[in-house]
Write a structure and sequence with these properties.
The chain has about 90 residues and is mainly alpha-helical. It has five helices and no strands.
């Protein structure tokens, strides 16, 4: 998190991808360790090979923000926020 704060002061703000990852982490913490199972049970897309790839991609992006496609991160984040009961917030 300190690295993100340093980036904000250096560049004036976080990228959309970084903001989505922060939202993803917050909602993942609310849903709990079984967040993948929760998403798979709520949305049939995440119960497919491609959906599983989306989940893996986003999980890897948390560790290394250079990884993960922003569209994949957005789709997973919005679905996870719904599962966590977080009201929808526009991305931009």
């Amino acid at each position: 998190m300190e690295e993100l704060h340093a980036r904000v002061s250096e560049y004036g703000g976080l990228s959309i991808k970084e903001r989505l990852l922060i939202r993803f982490i917050k909602s993942r913490n609310i849903v709990g360790k079984n967040w993948r199972g929760v998403l798979a049970s709520r949305d049939p897309f995440f119960n497919t090979k491609l959906g599983g790839d989306y989940l893996t991609s986003v999980a890897q992006a948390v560790s290394d923000s250079s990884r993960g496609n922003v569209d994949r991160i957005e789709r997973v984040t919005i679905a996870l926020e719904k599962a966590a009961g977080i009201p929808f917030t526009p991305i931009v």
